[in-house]
């Protein structure tokens, strides 16, 4: 489990990522954007299965829910795994909440991808997350990603492709993340949208906190200004 004393690096440490990219980085942006169609076709061709890391099914022991409240026992979740829970994000609108226990390699990829200059909103400047998640990890604690798994384009559910180069059609720039099978939007392992995707912004992060020495997650609602999707 993450240490409560672990500090997130300040946003200012990564402001270089907002500077004008070098010509080779501009070319990389072009190649990435141009290749998203091939990615969608490749993923569809193999049945849109999620490789390498399986998702855990929520169980009665792992999940309890009340009005606008989701409580998750984090202890059974293994490094690299993703768990999905249904959540009433808005009146009459259920949106899946995903919890990912990120490995050190996954966390390193969130810094590495910023050097590629292919993220639309790398520092999460749009209010798609609470203030405490406005960092490169988009989370309270780097290890734990808590996010609405809804593509911000048309509300489809992106699939989890956590391994580098695992997404069919993607090349060396794919360091792991999420791919939407509907229209091809792609996101990194913090839910940050990649340039060339039809999705307009990063995936939304709900309001949440940890309890019981960080072994229990409590989701309390959609963060006010955020938009789960534009549909």
From TrEMBL:
Primary location group: membrane
Domain Rieske stretches: 118-219
Subcellular localization, as worded in the UniProt entry: Membrane
Official protein name in the record: Ubiquinol-cytochrome c reductase iron-sulfur subunit
Organism from which the protein derives: Acidihalobacter ferrooxydans
Catalytic activities: a quinol + 2 Fe(III)-[cytochrome c](out) = a quinone + 2 Fe(II)-[cytochrome c](out) + 2 H(+)(out)
PANTHER family linked: CYTOCHROME B-C1 COMPLEX SUBUNIT RIESKE, MITOCHONDRIAL
Keyword list, A-Z: 2Fe-2S, Disulfide bond, Electron transport, Iron, Iron-sulfur, Membrane, Metal-binding, Transmembrane, Transmembrane helix, Transport
Subunit structure and binding partners: The main subunits of complex b-c1 are: cytochrome b, cytochrome c1 and the Rieske protein.
Transmembrane portions of the chain: 30-53
Stored InterPro entries: Rieske_2Fe-2S, Rieske_2Fe-2S_sf, Rieske_Fe-S_prot, Rieske_Fe-S_prot_C, TAT_signal, Ubiquinol_cyt_c_Rdtase_Fe-S-su
Cofactor note: Binds 1 [2Fe-2S] cluster per subunit.
């Amino acid at each position: 489990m993450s240490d409560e004393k672990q500090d997130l690096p300040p946003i200012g440490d990564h402001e270089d990522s907002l500077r004008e990219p070098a010509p080779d980085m501009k070319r990389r942006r072009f190649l990435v954007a141009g290749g998203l169609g091939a990615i969608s076709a490749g993923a569809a061709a193999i049945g849109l299965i999620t490789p390498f890391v399986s998702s855990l099914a929520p169980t009665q022991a792992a999940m309890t829910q009340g009005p606008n409240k989701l409580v998750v026992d984090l202890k059974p979740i293994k490094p690299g795994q993703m768990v999905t829970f249904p959540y009433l994000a808005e009146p009459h609108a259920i949106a899946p909440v995903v919890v990912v226990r990120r490995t050190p390699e996954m966390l390193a990829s969130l810094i590495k991808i910023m050097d590629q200059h292919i993220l639309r909103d790398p520092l999460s400047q749009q209010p798609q997350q609470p203030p405490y998640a406005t960092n490169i990890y988009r989370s309270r604690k780097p290890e734990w990603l808590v996010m609405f798994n809804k593509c911000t384009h048309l509300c489809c559910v992106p699939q989890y492709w956590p391994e580098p180069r695992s997404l069919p059609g993607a090349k060396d720039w794919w360091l792991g993340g999420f791919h939407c099978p509907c229209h091809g939007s792609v996101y990194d392992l913090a839910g940050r949208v990649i340039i060339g995707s039809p999705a307009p912004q990063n995936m939304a992060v709900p309001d949440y906190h940890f309890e019981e020495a960080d072994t229990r997650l409590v989701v309390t609602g959609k963060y006010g200004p955020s938009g789960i999707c534009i549909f």
